[in-house]
Amino acid sequence: MTPDLPSVAGANGAASDPAFLSYPADPVRTVTGVPGSGGTYVTRTPLWGAIPPSSGNSYYDAVNKALGATLKMQPADGNTYVDALPALFASGKLPDWIQIPSWINQRLNLGSAVDRFADLTPYLAGENIARYPNLANIPTAAWQAGVWNGKLYGIPSYSSPNNFPGYLFCRKDLLDAAGVSAEVRSADELFALGKALTDAKAGRWAFDDLWPYLLFPFRVISTWNQGPGGKLIHQYETPGMIEALNFAARLAKAGYVHPDALAGNTANGQQRFWSGKVAISGGGTGAMNGDDAKGGTAANPDYSRQAFKGVPAGQLRRRRRGPHHEGREAILAERGQKDVATSFQFLATGPQVTLVQNGFTQVARDYAAWQADAVKYAAKPLFFAMNISEPPQYASIGQQVEDTIKDVRYGRKPVEAFKSAVDTWRKQGGDQLRGFYEGIRDKHGTGA
Prior knowledge:
Elements: E1 19-20, E2 40-47, H1 58-67, E3 70-72, E4 75-77, H2 81-91, E5 97-98, H3 105-108, H4 121-124, H5 133-136, E6 147-148, E7 151-152, E8 167-171, H6 172-178, H7 187-197, E9 205-207, E10 224-226, E11 232-234, H8 239-253, H9 259-262, H10 269-275, E12 278-283, H11 290-299, E13 305-307, H12 334-339, E14 354-355, H13 361-374, H14 399-409, H15 415-444
Parallel strand pairs: 1-14, 2-3, 2-4, 2-5, 9-12
Antiparallel strand pairs: 6-7, 8-12, 8-13, 10-11
Helix pairs in contact: 14-15
């Protein structure tokens, strides 16, 4: 199939996802018959949005009928999903199928817990995967995320040749109304937006909580970094971390950050952005899509979410006679809007593509354009695509640093408190952990 907007190659092997602006007239059928043979399997996946009903769900029932098995879907709030996983692991009551975001691997010390999961290697390695054409279509590199100690335990979801963890984005319509530009090229220019967009008396603030996405503009992209003389440097020890913390504290102390964000209330962040209570926020790349546009335009017809750097300035507008379509696109009826959610996709997904959702074609175009620009600057962090099991004695030494980071970026403690916490981290095992990773590097390389 030929995409409407082809993939664009970038730096370090990165590429943008291809975009399709209409549903294919003749979609390819990859599975014939009913693949399942009965049984009921409990799942757990994240969901950023309204949780649909589990029982009497027409979408779940239709998919299970086609599968020939029953997947009991139990999506959980994506905002708190990773926070609940450690307790779930500790309880020993894991579901049959669970989605584990890669960014929590270290916190879970997943490498020491893989024996709780099924070894899929005999079923999917080598020529065996040919029995499953949809899985065989997933790029080889994507499977590395589920490999531990030479065995396959996980199936990729949302695999992409760019794999950006997130970005900073803005309400373009609010910036336009304030007469300021979204073409921000420096920290000073971003800070200046705070004054232009904050009106506390009117209940509007420029910023929501930008962490950890604020790290990227300050070139903090890797947990470990090559230092002088072959020594590895942790991100806690980089100048960029200090600069990012100082900048975040400046925003907080200037009164440019929404009070609920400073109180750690992340659950209502989406509503703050949709309602215009904040104009600039940070989040995962899945935030910019037609579902978001549907929610945002319900609050304000001029709603326009745009990512900083490289995104076209075109306004997103809903036409009064309904959403704008370009070709064919499936639109959910009232029952579908209640029952359908992104749930099965977090269990296994083919190669990532950008699609039109809810008729918002311009959103798909804008996101594809942002990706095409962003991949030019893509960089691989150290130990890229390498699953490493840290010794368990180091599992909690970073918590006091993370707690201090929150206090510093919220303006409650000075940056000297962070430096002191890092010194404690070194003494409690950080230096030994450095030696552990230097041994991994010397023996296996860095993946970069």
